[in-house]
Specification:
The protein is an alpha/beta fold. 47% of the residues lie in helices and 15% in strands.
Length: 231
């Protein structure tokens, strides 16, 4: 069975995507910082018959990244790596004039440095796969200028660029930066706690990710809304 590593997989989009892949017969290595929630998620996904390895930890820790890839190797390799774990940099979001620089460093470490570190760790196994794929979860804040989203948006823009370059450097792989659009997630609630407008559940955008995996278009940046419209 194909094997996927998904970071930030205990809830939100990470969990929704993991559940869809488990239902399709994928084996999974899941990461999140909250051990108890991750354990509950893994138990639920194992109900699909998938082999699920849950490894709590922080993706900024090189030893943890090595542990994730080693666990995937034990399951058979790495066919898909999803860099979904994200940090805002400030909760709630702040204008650049007051953005804590330590918060910006944290966003860059989680969203960019750790993501690249995990790709580097997994590359030998991705190259060995017949359908090696990297998905980096992006944001419209990476491409548009929104007040208070500067730190987070800058980190996601950097991640988008790394994904674009990786796609050029690794032509046998598929490397997709995917903007899922607005979603009702804990991350968004922490970013804008006063926004009470209803937003789509993460599961609603998972078909866009599955379409990419099914159709395997060229490496590049894709928006989930447009992929869903084209179904």
């Amino acid at each position: 069975m194909p094997v996927a590593i998904i970071t930030g997989a205990s809830k939100g989009l990470g969990r929704a995507l993991a559940e869809a892949l488990a239902a399709r017969g994928w084996d999974l290595v899941l990461d999140a910082r909250t051990a108890e929630v991750l354990k509950e998620t893994a138990a639920a996904l194992a109900g699909h018959g998938a082999r699920v390895t849950a490894l709590p930890g922080d993706v900024t820790d090189p030893a943890h990244r090595s542990e994730l890839v080693a666990a995937a190797w034990k399951l058979g390799g790495v066919d898909l790596l999803v860099n979904n774990a994200s940090a805002l940099g400030a909760e709630p979001l702040a204008r650049l004039e007051g953005l804590p620089l330590d918060g910006l460093r944290r966003a860059l470490e989680v969203n960019v440095v750790a993501a690249l570190g995990l790709v580097q760790e997994a590359l030998p196994l991705l190259r060995a796969s017949e359908a090696g794929t990297v998905i980096t979860v992006s944001s419209d804040a990476a491409a548009e200028a929104y007040e208070k989203w500067g730190g987070y948006g800058a980190s996601k823009a950097a991640l988008d660029h790394l994904a674009a370059v990786l796609g050029e450097e690794e032509p046998r792989l598929r490397v997709w930066a995917v903007d899922p659009g607005d979603m009702a997630t804990d991350l968004y609630a922490a970013a804008v706690p006063d926004d009470g407008d209803p937003r789509p559940e993460p599961a609603s955008v998972v078909p866009a990710f599955l379409r990419l995996l099914d159709e395997r278009p060229a490496s590049g940046r894709y928006g989930a809304p447009s992929l869903l419209e084209g179904r």
